[in-house]
Amino acid sequence: MTSLRDAAMTSKAWPFEEARRLLKRYEKAPPEKGHVLFETGYGPSGLPHIGTFGEVARTTMIRRAFEVISDIPTRLICFSDDMDGMRKVPSNVPNQDLLHANVQKPLTSVPDPFGEYASFGDHNNAMLRRFLDTFGFEYEFYSATEFYKSGQFDAVLLRACERYDDIMAVMLKSLREERQQSYSCFLPIHPETGRVLYVPMKAVNAQDGTITFDDEDGREWTLPVTGGQVKLQWKPDFGARWAALDVDFEMYGKDHSTNTPIYDRICEILGGRKPEHFTYELFLDENGEKISKSKGNGLTIDEWLTYASTESLSYFMFQKPKTAKRLWWDVIPKAVDEYHQQLRAFPGQTIEQQLANPVWHIHNGQVPESDMVVPFAMLLNLASVAGATDRTGLWGFIQRYAPEATPETHPGLDQAAEFAVRYFRDFVAPKRVFRLPTQPERDAMQDLVARLRAWEGGRDAEALQSMVFAVGKDHGFENLRDWFKALYEVLLGASEGPRFGGFIALYGIDESVALIDKGLSGALLG
Fold it and tell me: pTM (2 decimals)?
């Protein structure tokens, strides 16, 4: 019998492929620090979005895969770049005037526009931690402000002074000529205004670890690079952080991919070993545009969790990380149903198949049973025709279809029923457009009503599906998709819908007959 570790060493699931690549890093000797360090970065310039969650979720999946194939301990750091200057004001937060008055100050020096925390950076850090804690991630939170001010970056900052010319040579190659004239890898924090300054250096003194520069008013200043008085530009900061913390693995979005050689080289200049990388494709909004924290487009974590479970979001994150994915409201029902399909398949799979199943990675091998005896898409349609305003309105139908199910014995289904009512109310109902059937469609639907009234096959979903299929065939629909599309558009006000036999089984024979009669009479047109 194949062991878990043996199966993991050949699994083609992407977390195991990445874990094996990381393990090769230490094939000659284990890490001197005694563990493998995973890192995710967060720029708290706006409220955390779903892409931030995806980074931690996917990194955790690789971390857990690594723990299957290796006995080397692991750590995961979530590092917040909260000392960055706030270069623009996010449009989706209150007190815009307050924020505009503090532009260019480090995020941890900008007042919290929500009035809840010591700073805007602290607020966004707290939001991130709350989101991550919702999913039960095991991580350590690190603040750039704390690292710079406490001296934990001092050694690498002094080394940056010593090797300033080498760092600048790397950076200047990547910059346009006009940017080269004013660029410095060091960003001083103005002693009086507290603003992050983007100014050229007049001198960098490696012996005493200071920089000299003129501020925006032409006054000359000399500051030590240590103790949080100076920070690094974001690209050098990436490499410096890897060197300072001895990071072994970090993933980031495709928009960073062209900078990877810069990050790596600066890490090496500062005495570090470049980490292993994983570049994922970006999430897109409904218009196919990149999701942005400052714009607030795309879905937030809270929004997804209003309409579906945490596991469904993790399932969405597992799927094809190297492919750009549209992240909008209509992906939620599909993610929920596919997640439960994988849960149901898991017990009957071989160990190799289980390791390739997304639910193994979502649950770290401790995979629960699915209690979704009714698909989420079907619950949405049931909410539509039943006019349900809460989940109790759906349970009467559910229990006639699955008498053994109760809210107590099937808590996941109970939660999904509530999600379905909310989702229908907010996203399906406003977009429904009913129509009358054409004459051929009317003839077929009247035939369907007659057969349903004579039906003696009970709530057998497959038998009902076959019967509906036969009606369409008997009435000459060359493409049976047109028959089912007609049923959906006339009865549900949408061009897509569930397996109709399953819908009849759930909703009820008599209720389905009444629904079709309403569709034929035009009563559903409102």
Answer: 0.90
